[in-house]
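Running log. JK asked me to keep both predictions on one page so they can be read side by side. First protein, sequence followed by its tokens:
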Amino acid sequence: MKPAMVLVSMALCAFATLTYAQESSDRQIYADRCVKCHGETGTGTFMLGRRLGKEKGMLEHRIDLTPELIRHVVRNGIVSMPAITRVEVTDAELDAIVRYLTRTRTAAAESTNR
């Protein structure tokens, strides 16, 4: 293998490891801050399923959530979801939650742009 290919291969491996670590961290923050209401049996999941259809109840499975929508709903609340303050969920934690909830949307967009 040529040295340049080795370097590219090593860089891709490091990127994949970093990406996996970031997603794991984001998933954990989502679990810590959101799953109580938005897990499988949570009130948020139930209410969203009632209003929008069962397929849209689980936030983790949706691909239609935009970063702007997530941030707006978290900070301002909507219907039965209260506004979440920066004390309860910091801006950095909200960034992680947004990354986690939009990960499949981002991956889908990247694959269609190739």
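And the second, directly underneath as requested:
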Amino acid sequence: MSPWIPWLYHYGVGGLVFLACLAIACRSGAVRFRHRPDRLLVVALCAGLVAFMTIHAVWIALVKG
């Protein structure tokens, strides 16, 4: 089995859950994009997810050689 299949599943399903939770937070008013701290929080969360996905992908690529 390719090591990329679990990676795709992990970040595919996890990404959908992440986006769903972010949408719920926005709709409930817990996150307001008019306030700078809230915008920075959302950017930091998204950047962290992308950074972790990238690091994980690099590790897989290095191991597979």
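Observation for JK regarding the second prediction: The mean pLDDT is 94.
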